[in-house]
Automatic annotation (TrEMBL):
Descriptive protein name: Ribose transport system permease protein
Cellular component terms (Gene Ontology): plasma membrane
Topology class, membrane: Multi-pass membrane protein
CDD domains per the UniProt record, alphabetical: TM_PBP1_transp_AraH_like
């Protein structure tokens, strides 16, 4: 691994050492558990975003997809609004809805030939519309003990959400490393024209990547719903930006073709550790936002500089 590729990991280690020296509470086991638990949902959402970024595309649909999936799962498991009690089936339906909305983003991209940030922004609006209709002015509280236990139950000291996130990261890495979908996603971002000229039908793989990303967003929404104990339209608020930020900070390029799930996971941990450490040392929340914004601007600039003049296709 080159020094440049290892940069985010080195930065993570440096930040951990600095905060551990500044505040003894930072290095306690309880705080480590808090950091990993806090990173769980973002890690899952970032897995989906990472594959889209590998294509060289931008996905802004997470907020709407997560909103629709959150209300869906809340209304299908045991809840305070209706008599539904479908348990795991409700979770699967919410994830499948996320996958369907993600697939819609991919279809619009390959058929309309417009930039992905426009199509995904439109799909996000569709998801928010679905969520608003399902919400109907009455917030559904989740009573289902199984779903609530995702956020409250623990195994080896960590919540089930953390273990779900770890499983998703592992699954994402396996898909990226050992499947045709993962390899082609990387190749499309690196040189889509060359791949197309070699006889590969690029469009189906783009749709498949967006569909997989939507499934990750749907699962992330179920996790948020477990944390909040209810379905909310704002379940995915800010996750689109946060996931892109984490992926880029971790070394996954906006222009595609480089990085991956493990890189992005380092970015998730870096941002989560940074937020946790700044809180513990008493830094103002306003300053925290400024620091994170500065980090992503610098990361994007550094990552994109070597590829600034690369030929582009519609992303």
């Amino acid at each position: 691994m080159s020094v440049g590729a290892a940069g985010p990991l080195i930065a993570l280690v440096v930040i951990v050492v600095v905060f551990a020296a500044l505040n003894p509470q930072f290095r306690t086991l309880g705080n480590v558990q808090n950091i990993l638990d806090a990173a769980a949902v973002l890690a899952v959402v970032t897995c989906g975003t990472t594959f889209v970024l590998l294509l060289g595309s931008i996905d802004l649909s997470a907020a709407g997809v997560m909103a629709a999936s959150s209300l869906t799962v809340a209304l299908l498991v045991e809840n305070t609004r209706n008599a539904a009690d479908y348990g795991v089936i409700g979770v699967l339906v919410a994830v499948l809805l996320g996958a369907a909305l993600g697939g819609l983003s991919g279809l619009l991209l390959v058929t309309l030939k417009v930039p992905s940030f426009m199509t995904t922004l439109g799909v996000s609006a569709v998801g928010l519309g679905i969520a608003t209709l399902l919400f109907a002015g009455v917030q559904p509280g989740v009573v289902d003990a199984g779903l609530r236990s995702w956020a409250t139950g623990r195994f080896l000291g960590f919540t089930y959400l953390t273990w779900i996130a770890a499983t998703c990261v592992l699954l994402g890495w396996v898909v990226q490393r050992y499947t045709r979908l993962g390899r082609y996603a990387m190749a499309i971002g690196g040189a889509e024209e060359v791949l197309a000229l070699s006889g590969v039908r690029v469009a189906p793989y783009k749709v498949a990547v967006f569909t997989m990303a939507g499934a990750f967003y749907g699962l992330g929404a179920v996790m948020v719903t477990s944390q909040l104990g209810s379905g909310v339209v704002q379940a995915g608020a800010d996750y689109s930006f946060s996931a892109i930020t984490a992926a880029v900070v971790g070394g996954t390029l906006l222009v595609g073709g480089r990085g991956g799930v493990l890189h992005s996971t380092v970015g998730v941990l870096l941002l989560t550790v940074l937020t946790n450490g700044l809180v513990l040392v008493g830094v103002s929340p306003y300053v925290q936002g400024g620091v994170q914004g500065l980090i992503v601007v610098v990361a994007v600039a550094v990552a994109a500089a070597p590829l600034r003049h690369r030929n582009q296709v519609v992303k």
